[in-house]
């Protein structure tokens, strides 16, 4: 029997307003996935407050208080979430406290992508491939080696990989169908032959009788893996292969596997003689970028890490390479 999606039932005094707010955002075309998870936390947090169709000051201030383990970005996100809810409730005649925007912490410097060397990538997957069978997750040692390969070899966002269903992986043609990704765009991702063969072995060993609508990487309960589990596994693996964690702004982070794919791909294609202006549209489409601007940010990293190709890049872009301050 294929698993159904887990549904959270809002139960606090804010339940009606939160549900109505999310419904409005979805009707307007916003995914609000991360916000949805934050509203679940807010709902649980609000259980001990008198907040039926009202948003009292004491609740808002307690919710937005900076926690020692929270980054400024996390606190800013929490503030923005509850401010949007307050505006919605106020429009609907509810008594609310609007957190003053001037009191929000200032945003810190952006994270600079950590680009793995080819040698580090080799060590990383060597460690991943030695994962042992876990008593709490009988397929963990089969799932994560392939999951991380899709992030690096195909440049997928982790959410895209975790949402893959069995029907989205065309083994015969070696193509991944990425559905409803960022900005609601679908795309097709061709895989190299070695990766296609890895997918075949994985399906035979891990999900031999899977329903087409089941997750390609099922968690032990049959649902989608939680992002925190994947991040923790990633951190565990890169520590084991001797790659230290340099902190929030240094990394490496899980998303840096996607950044590394883009830089290694650019380096390989440019070194082979391909024209940069020819490569950018192809890479932008492969990565699912809305415009070339997001993809062009990798040009700076590529020339910084592989200086031997900088002359060719400068000739193509005439000194217009984006600076490191433009990196996302």
Biggest β-sheet strands, sense, barrel:
3 strands, antiparallel
Rg, please?
22 Å
Q: Can you say what the CATH homologous superfamily of the largest domain is?
A: Intergrase catalytic core
CATH topology of the largest domain: hpI Integrase, Chain A
Strand content: under 5%
Structural class: mainly alpha
Gap from first CA to last CA:
42 Å
Report on the architecture of this protein.
The chain has 13 helices and five strands. It has 328 residues and is mostly helical. The protein has three domains: 15-103; 118-240, Intergrase catalytic core (hpI Integrase, Chain A, Orthogonal Bundle), CATH 1.10.443; 256-326. The strands form two sheets. A three-stranded antiparallel beta sheet has the order 3-4-5, with no helix packed on it. Strands 1-2 form a two-stranded parallel ribbon. Strand 3 and strand 4 form a beta hairpin. Helix 11 crosses helix 12 (292-305). It is globular and about 60 Å long. Mean pLDDT is 82; it is low at 1-5 and 319-328.
Write the layout of secondary structure elements.
Layout: H1 15-27, H2 33-45, E1 54-55, H3 57-64, H4 72-91, E2 95-96, H5 118-128, H6 140-153, H7 158-162, E3 169-170, E4 175-178, E5 187-190, H8 193-206, H9 227-240, H10 256-271, H11 276-287, H12 292-305, H13 310-317
Parallel strand pairs: 1-2
Antiparallel strand pairs: 3-4, 4-5
Helix pairs in contact: 6-8, 6-10, 10-11, 10-12, 11-12
Provide a short characterization of the protein structure:
By secondary structure, this protein is mostly helical. It is built from 13 helices and five strands.
